[in-house]
Structure formats: structure tokens, C-alpha cells
Amino acid sequence: MKIDIDRDIENKASNSYNLDNKLYSIPHFITNAFIELQQRTPQAGIFKITQSFNQQELNRQIDLHFYVDPAPLETDQICSLIKYFYRKLTVPLLPKHVCKQLREHAQNPMLMKTDLVFLKPSYFENLVFLLKKLNGIAKVPEYRMDAKNLGVCFAPNLFEDFAFGDEKILQQLIVLVENM
């Protein structure tokens, strides 16, 4: 099953999240998962590929649109579910037309920012939310996950037509988000 961010927002399965004095509609699971991660002691290699024994059951709950409470989960389970959530979107956060523009403008950060304007508002909000959270993780040395590593971990889940080199574009976006 695929996940539709717009449907979740319409069905009130989202939180109004204040980010830089702007209200964003972000799915409950995603906001609560990042809140839970922030409350925990930083763990080296966060978001690296890991699978726990009950990860398939947790993935199934996401597929069935059940709310998964991140509080009792291990950090690696939360991280795996966050990546899984973005991988299961009906339309990835970075659809083909935006991917094409980002690739063309990879050498010009200002144009890359304007490319994001072509996203649907709900996708723009969710992408900015995710990028800001990843930027925050990249700044914490204890995580040992800089923007480059996070780009490698998340690019396949966010780009509709992922191609070699897209992780570098995502790395740039993670850094650029500070000025959005």
C-alpha cells in the first residue's frame, strides 16, 4: 500500500508543526518520530541501514495506515520507519519534474531553492520539515552523520527517479535548508 500525505492531512492525521514561525501540516508519525529522536541520546550512525526482527510488522502497520507510536521503539526502528514512510509515498517528495530541475541547477544553490516552489504545498512543507530535521542531525557530531551521509541514506527514498549523484543534490538541500 502507498501513503498519501494529502489524504493524511485531510483526515486530520497530521500535526500543525511550528517551524520557523510557520505552521506546517506534517503526518503525526513523522513529527512524533523526530520528537522522540530528539529526546534520546545521540547515537552514532543514525539512519544507517538496519533491520530489527519485528521491522516487517511495523512496516505493515505503516502500510495499513495505522498510527505507530515511536516512543517504545528502538532508535534504529524509528529511523527505519521514517525512511520506509517516505519510500511508500504515492508520489515521492521530489517528483520527476522537480528532480530534473534540481539536477540542471545543481551548481546554483539559489536556483535549487526556487525549484522547490514547483512542489505541491503539502510536499514542500514535508520536504522542508524533513530537511531541517536532517540538517539538525548533521550538526550533532555524536550522530556521526553529516549531510553527505544523510543524503546517501535518504535520496533513494525521496527522488521519484533516483539516479547516481542524487545523493549529492540532497546533501546540498540539507545544507541549503538553513536559509529557507
UniProtKB/TrEMBL annotation:
Domain (Rho-GAP): residue spans on this chain: 17-180
BP terms from Gene Ontology: signal transduction
Annotated PROSITE patterns: RHOGAP (PS50238)
Protein origin, superkingdom: Eukaryota
SMART domains the record matches: RhoGAP (SM00324)
Gene3D superfamilies assigned to the protein according to its UniProt record, in alphabetical order: Rho GTPase activation protein
Pfam name, any one: RhoGAP
InterPro entries (UniProt xref): Rho_GTPase_activation_prot, RhoGAP_dom
The protein's name: RhoGAP domain-containing protein
Organism: Hexamita inflata
Lineage: Eukaryota, Metamonada, Diplomonadida, Hexamitidae, Hexamitinae
